[in-house]
Q: What sequence folds into this?
């Protein structure tokens, strides 16, 4: 193994070389294209001693490293993805050299071509939804006994559970509308308040692959459904379709 490894950001087709001419990625290393059979990999160099399997596993516990690396990774993918159809690779995907990257392009040419064809003319959009803030409830003054206090608490908890169920039912309907107008849909893990920065519980974190010619109609339907839902809804995008790249093609 040499002093550097080849870090792959994405694969794509018809990527203009000028897009990567002045583009720099992780560690401020320049980005280049490695091509084989009409498919190109967007590649940069990284220090071999910092991207061993052991080092990567350890650094994935380091939030500062993940944040810095992810920003550089996504910036490269976003710049190239704005000019060509690309399928992003997972963070910290490395190979021993460019020759190995070319070999991967040959071996997986069919899978890469299928994914890129599915993504052509489409972008990823996100829909997040949170339950409305629960109203403040008065427990009617001081409880007359321990049993009365427990009865009131159980009533409050039952009402809270009912409202949560109603919010999740509304989220299912919202997801159905968003997925119905998309070519593909994914449900992501719901964020805890500490991660979302909101006190209300998140009830939907969806990603949707939408044809660029259908975006206006799709957004209008989602926004109308969001208004009817009683939820706090946020629509984001367009993004490079990270959520719709099959793991087996990487």
A:
């Amino acid at each position: 193994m040499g002093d550097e490894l080849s870090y792959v950001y994405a694969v794509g087709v018809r990527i203009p070389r000028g897009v990567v001419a002045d583009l720099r990625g992780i560690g401020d290393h320049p980005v280049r294209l490695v091509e084989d059979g009409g498919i190109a990999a967007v590649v940069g160099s990284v220090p071999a001693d910092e991207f061993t399997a052991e080092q990567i596993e350890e650094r994935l516990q380091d939030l500062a490293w993940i944040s810095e690396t992810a920003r550089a990774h996504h910036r490269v993918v976003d710049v190239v993805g704005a000019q060509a159809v690309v399928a992003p690779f997972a963070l910290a995907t490395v190979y021993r050299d460019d020759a190995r990257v070319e070999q991967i392009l040959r071996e997986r040419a069919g899978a890469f071509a299928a994914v890129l064809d599915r993504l052509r003319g489409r972008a990823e959009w996100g829909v997040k939804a949170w339950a409305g803030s629960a109203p403040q409830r008065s427990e009617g003054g001081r409880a007359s006994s321990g049993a009365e206090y427990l009865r009131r608490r159980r009533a409050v908890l039952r009402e809270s559970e009912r409202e949560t169920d109603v919010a999740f039912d509304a989220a299912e309907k919202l997801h159905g509308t968003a997925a119905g107008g998309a070519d593909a849909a994914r449900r992501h893990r719901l964020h805890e308040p500490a991660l979302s920065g909101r006190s209300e519980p998140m009830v939907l974190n969806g990603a949707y692959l939408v044809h660029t010619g259908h975006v206006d109609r799709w957004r209008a339907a989602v926004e109308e459904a969001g208004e009817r839902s009683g939820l706090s809804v946020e629509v984001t995008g367009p993004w490079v379709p990270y959520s719709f790249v099959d793991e087996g093609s990487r």
Remarks:
- The longest strand covers residues 4-13.
- The beta strands are 4-13, 31-36, 39-47, 85-88, 94-95, 122-130, 184-187, 202-211, 232-239.
